[in-house]
Design goal:
138 residues; alpha+beta; 5-stranded mixed sheet; 28% helix; Aminopeptidase
Length: 138
């Protein structure tokens, strides 16, 4: 398995891995994402095929410093249960430490056992009694 931390100029790699996302990657948004300092996208390749990804966004607050939000994680069904997800999460954690982040966090559903097992295997500890509130703007 190879992990690639993508940078500006790697837009075609993202478009080629679109099947890993919830929908097709859009060139303009991809270009903007990859050019933004503090936005991170890592692709996993198995036998030169995109197998999974993780995205992270550095956030900072005056009383906390920088933290990494693990924004999204996805692994193609063919490559699940092979350590791809855990490797991606660990690589994002390494990137976060290198960037000076004091921690990393993710939000997932309480019943999403696969995600929770992956995060906890990579060192995460669940926060008790957390609630996610969401706004949708159209």
């Amino acid at each position: 398995m190879e992990l690639r931390v993508l940078q500006s100029g790697d837009e075609m790699l993202v478009l080629a891995a679109s099947r890993l996302f919830d929908g097709p990657a859009r060139l303009g948004v991809t270009r903007s994402f990859l050019a933004h300092p503090g936005y991170h996208l890592i692709l996993a390749y198995v036998d030169d095929r995109p197998a999974g990804f993780v995205s992270g966004i550095e956030l900072s607050h005056p009383d906390k410093g920088a933290e990494m939000l693990l924004y999204e994680l996805g692994v193609d069904e063919t490559y699940r249960h092979r350590g791809v997800a855990r490797s991606l999460v660990e690589r994002l954690g390494t990137l976060a430490r290198t960037a000076g982040c004091t921690g990393m966090w993710a939000v997932t559903g309480e019943g999403n056992r696969a995600a929770r097992a992956t995060y906890e295997a990579a060192g995460a500890v669940p926060e008790p009694a957390q609630v996610v509130e969401a706004w949708t703007f159209t």
